C-alpha cells in the first residue's frame, strides 16, 4: 500500500467508478487508455496479446510519424482539482518519458468523438482526429506543463503533484505524453459537484436574457444569442450585413487580428445579476461569415437607469474566433471584476454572425459573502 502525500485530498474524480470516461486517444496499440481510469492498483502478467506484451495501463506504439500522443478524459461530474498522481507501474523500458496535463470546463456535450469499443491495436482515424480537433483541446488551460517521468519500478513509479488551480471547475482533461510510451494510471483528486458549494453550481447553467440595443441585425436578430440550447442554423442566430467601410485589401497585425476600425455590437439584458466566471461564444453554422474577433463588456444598471449612463468593464478581452464551432473562452481571457453584472455588450469585428453567447456566473443573491478570484 503506497503512502499518499499530505496534500492528496478528496476523491479520484476521473476514475471509472466515479463516472470518468475516455473520449479520445491518438493511439491504443499495446494497451487502451481506459486502463488509466481504473481504481485498482496496476498488476503484472507475463501474457502477450496479438499486438505485443500485455500491460495494465495505456501504451501507444513507438512513434514514427509527426506529433505526440494524447487522450481526452471526461470527468464524471464537474470538479475542483487538488492533486494528481501519474503512475508508471511496470512500464520500465517503455514508459512515457514526459507528460503534461490540460483542462477545460465545457458546457456542451463532447461525446461521440471516437468509438472506444475494443480499440487495442488501433490508432485514431482521420475522422476521429477531425472530430477531436473541434474541441481545440490543445488550447485548454495548462494545469501541469511538460514534466519528466521516471521508470515504473517500485521506488520511482508514483509521481505526485499538488495543483494550484484554486476553485476553478473542470469537466474535461487532456493527458499528453511526449512523444509516446506507457502510463499505468492517472489519478486526479479533488471534489466533484456533489460536494461543491451551491454558489458554484450556479455557474453550470447559462443565463437567459434579451437584447435591448444593437447596431445591425440585417440577417438575424441578436435576441437569439442567449436562447438556451444549440442553434438550429444560421437563421437561428445574430448576423449583420457586411460593413461597407471595410478596406479594399485586408491587412492583419502581428497578432493575427484584422486591421479594421469598424465593429458591430449588441447589448443584452441578463435575467439576473451575476459575477461572471466563464463565457462561451458559439459560431456554429458560420463557416464563411464568422467575425474575426469578439470582445465582451459588462455593467450593472439599477432599474430605470439609462444605458447611456453606464460605465462598462471589459469581461472578455478581444479574442480571435474560430468558425463553425464552440469557442470556450475562459482563463486567462476572462477578466474577473469585483462587481455584479446584469448587462453585457457583445462587440464583433468587423461584422458577421455568431449563434450563441453563453454566460456562466455566480448568483449575486447567494454570494453576499463571496467575491470572484483576484
TrEMBL record:
Biological process according to GO: allantoin catabolic process
GO molecular function, one term: allantoicase activity
InterPro entries, per the entry: Allantoicase, Allantoicase_dom, Galactose-bd-like_sf
Lineage: superkingdom: Eukaryota
Domain Allantoicase: 19-192, 209-362
Cited PANTHER family: ALLANTOICASE, INACTIVE ALLANTOICASE-RELATED
HAMAP family, per the entry: Allantoicase
Family of this protein: Belongs to the allantoicase family.
Name of the protein: Allantoate amidinohydrolase
Annotated organism of origin: Nasonia vitripennis (Parasitic wasp)
